[in-house]
Design brief:
single chain, alpha/beta, Uracil-DNA Glycosylase, subunit E
Length: 239
């Protein structure tokens, strides 16, 4: 079913979610997400697992879009919400709370009361990939969902990319929509990188994975700086 012309963002996003959660385009990812959901791990042995593609979530009227790589095997693949219930989320959501995008600093499950303000959170790939490494073919198969979200989120003008994979995926999605950077070399990812692509401003941040946060490569202050800059670019006043 296609949302009618003039449909509100929430209606359009709901349609995207309905299509996404039944997707089985990538046999390797389908097999992995379902294997993980069936075998579980000891610490979550008594909990039900989502085990399906994980949709984006947040404020349909958002002016900032935050994009990650993919759901974690025992995070989003378990809870059904990206960055929820894993160490990456334990680092990300306190930062979103500190910078005024979230009403609370924790995210443990879809019924935990978390609400995002002026922010929508999503990922390039929607199924947990083995070793956190989607293939180029799996990335391209999933990319239409990100493109559709960008169309639905008509107020977004600032995009925060967590990691090089997200940066590349967003550039590819924007290209599909006809948005390209100014003439010259393709914008390169880096922490604090900033690039204007069409009507959007892209901001780069190291990913909130343990490899970065446990080693100090990404600190809370570094992430806060990027998120606060995103808020400023989107002309959002903190409240």
């Amino acid at each position: 079913m296609t949302a009618p012309a003039g449909a509100q963002p929430a209606e359009r996003l709901g349609e995207i979610v309905a299509d996404l959660v039944v997707c089985r385009k990538c046999p390797r990812l389908v097999a992995w997400r379902e294997l993980v959901a069936g075998q579980k791990v000891a610490r979550f042995a008594t909990e039900p697992y989502w085990g399906r593609p994980v949709p984006g979530f947040g404020d349909p009227q958002a002016r900032v879009l935050l994009v990650g790589l993919a759901p974690a095997a025992h995070g989003g693949n378990r809870t059904g919400r990206v960055f929820t219930g894993d160490n990456s989320g334990n680092f990300l959501f306190p930062a979103l709370s500190r910078t005024g995008f979230a009403n609370q600093p924790t995210s443990v499950g879809v019924t935990d009361g978390l609400r995002l303000r002026d922010l929508y959170v999503t990922a390039v790939n929607r199924c947990a990939p083995p070793a956190n490494r989607p293939t180029p073919e799996e990335r391209d198969a999933c990319l239409p969902y990100l493109v559709s979200e960008m169309v639905a989120l008509g107020r977004v003008r600032t995009i925060v990319c967590l990691g090089a994979f997200a940066w590349d995926g967003v550039l590819r999605a924007l290209s599909v929509l006809g948005h390209r950077a100014a003439p010259g070399p393709r914008p390169r990812f880096g922490h604090g990188a900033e690039a204007r692509v069409g009507q959007y401003v892209l901001l780069g941040s190291f990913h909130v994975s343990q490899q970065n946060t446990f080693t100090g490569r990404l600190t809370p202050g570094m992430l806060d700086t990027v998120l606060s800059h995103a808020r400023g670019l989107a002309a959002i006043s903190a409240d």
